Amino acid sequence: MEVGHKNFAQKRPDQLVYLELGAGNGGMLLSISGDGFRFRAVAPLRPNGAVPFAFSLDGSKRLEGTGEIEWLEDDGKARRGTPGAN
What we know:
It is a single chain. The protein is an all-beta fold. It contains no helices and six strands. Strands 1-2-3-6-5-4 form a six-stranded antiparallel sheet, with no helix packed on it.
């Protein structure tokens, strides 16, 4: 299921980054850019509605927010999210 995939300049993290995706879900951060990030979730997410997220790139500063899912792969687990203001 594709929901408006668009290209963006991305950077892969130097290390494994665990991503929290609300209660009972999480995943791995695959890449990040100025306008969003790609990740692989443990459990499928729905393409509509706000999704809370949190992660730390350096182990000391935790980034938290709410974002929107821009696209999903058929399994509903790999996707690109755009952070909202938080």
